[in-house]
Amino acid sequence: MHPDREPSWSPPADAGEQPRQVRRILKLFRPYRARLTVVGLLVGAASLVSVATPFLLKEILDVAIPQGRTGLLSLLALGMILSAVLTSVFGVLQTLISTTVGQRVMHDLRTAVYGRLQRMSLAFFTRTRTGEVQSRIANDIGGMQATVTSTATSLVSNFTSVVATVIAMIALDWRLTVVSLLLLPAFVWISRRVGNERKRITTQRQKQMAAMAATVTESLSVSGILLGRTMGRADSLTASFAEESERLVDLEVRSSMAGRWRMAVITIVMAAMPAVIYWTAGMALHLGGPDVSLGTIVAFVSLQQGLFRPAVSLLSTGVQIQSSLALFQRIFEYLDLPIDITERPDPVHLDRIKGEVRFEKVSFRYDDRGAPVLDGIDLTVPAGGSLAVVGPTGAGKSTLGYLVPRLYDVTGGRVTLDGVDVRDLDFDTLARAVGVVSQETYLFHASVADNLRFAKPDATDEELYAAARAAQIHDHIAALPDGYDTVVGERGHRFSGGEKQRLAIARTILRDPPVLILDEATSALDTRTEHAVQQAIDSLSADRTTLTIAHRLSTVRGADQIVVLDSGRVAERGAHEELLARDGRYAALVRKDARPPQASGDPAPLEPTR
Q1: Is residue 105 within 8 Å of 36, Cβ to Cβ?
Q2: What per-residue confidence (pLDDT) applies to 526?
Q3: Where is the ABC transporter domain (predicted)?
Q4: What whole-number distance in Å separates Cα of residue 91 and Cα of residue 154?
Q5: Three-class DSSP category at 562
Q6: Domains and CATH numbers, the chain
Q7: Which residues does the chain have with pLDDT short of 50?
Q8: Is 283 left (phi over 0), alpha (psi -120 to 50) or beta?
């Protein structure tokens, strides 16, 4: 639907440094040290108990059976059964605790990323695809589930098992142990090579998944479907999605097969080791070497087979961890995003807000290299007063309004509320003080009541009805079969543009802010409904400071002050009649707005840009 737009921020040069990443990953588990200690104890106990079984088997073969000691045989057999029971019980408890810890870590990560994104400025979301953000939270963190829930514990468990088994093998016969471990360095080297390869492929795969998620989010939304159908692009979009999916198939296959043959060689060699041990012991006995008992050989092979599973698992776990580092890196990139709009360490809190808004030599640009969107704006809106901002498309009208609630921060000068720089106010004060109704109405896929209560969760039904009446929408809602329980649909598509706009106005009225920012709030209304809503807004604005950004000039005639912006500067200011008498830019805009587009040949007014 749109060309790929990646965030302009890039991670620091050392963001891929593995030691730093590992330290950050370990830090995630720090709050759960006590539980992890219990897991470690269970792992150690399980390893010791499982290693005891081959020694019991040796005693059975070398002592109990040859000497006919049935009592000892029964006791040793019972010990082997008890060992299996304890190992299983310890394993279940270990899995329960480690999985709980892992899920808590994933919860912490999801919450941290979501919280970080909630604090990002509006500019970040204008240059980042929604699907990309969703993919980071869903796919990347979801892909780490195996690592944080079981891989870490598996690593500790397998490592402990390998160490305990090797010690037991040495205790049985150090010479056979040396033979068994000759190829270990080669195995470790192979697993590291495979892990690095998996990590590279995993990074590519997650990027491809993010791209595909973005395509789905954009093209399968209600707006996307409408656009695709009306433009006759449904088949083209399907073909584009198929190409994205085909690339993902290739990456998934490559990820699955990366190093598979090399790991298969390790498996074959380790499976063949018992035959090597039998051959080594037999040849040593034949050549007059040290005598090794049958029980020792069988116990040793049993230990070796016990070593096989955790050793291969340990090598595979190393490969998985390498792959997971790519996912952690993508998550840490979001956690490291610089936050442009922050709350001061000692912010100002206002209990009573009058609503005076001032723009003092305000300048703004979206980036250091871009042209200024606003330049040297000086305006004052008294408490309870009204200011209308008009001008051609791209003049900076919406941006000016968005500086008041700090959706953007000024790059020069300051914006004040009751004499306090809005950058010095705490977020709670700012949220209570300023309400915004934008031209892009957003409604959740929930009931009408839930959408309205998003502004005031504890609002009573009577308060909902009063706000809806003020916005001229109550009668329409009440006439619906489910009334205020009606689900509005994805982005409110079950309602018309005018109805959605009135719901948004009712939602802001319910919040009752002392300062209103109306960014084309009546742009989607027909003339009759616009007049009714404008009456409601006018009556409510009596006790509120109102800043109206308008393209249709019929909505701003009653404003105390009208400002004409042009190329980010104030071109004219004054009351409606005063500006008409000057016969300047405002008067020209009024004449153009009054002419029917068909008669004049002019295009219909465009939506304002930010």
Answers
A1: no
A2: 66
A3: 357-592
A4: 11
A5: strand
A6: 18-173+292-336 (1.20.1560.10), 357-594 (3.40.50.300)
A7: 1-16, 597-610
A8: alpha
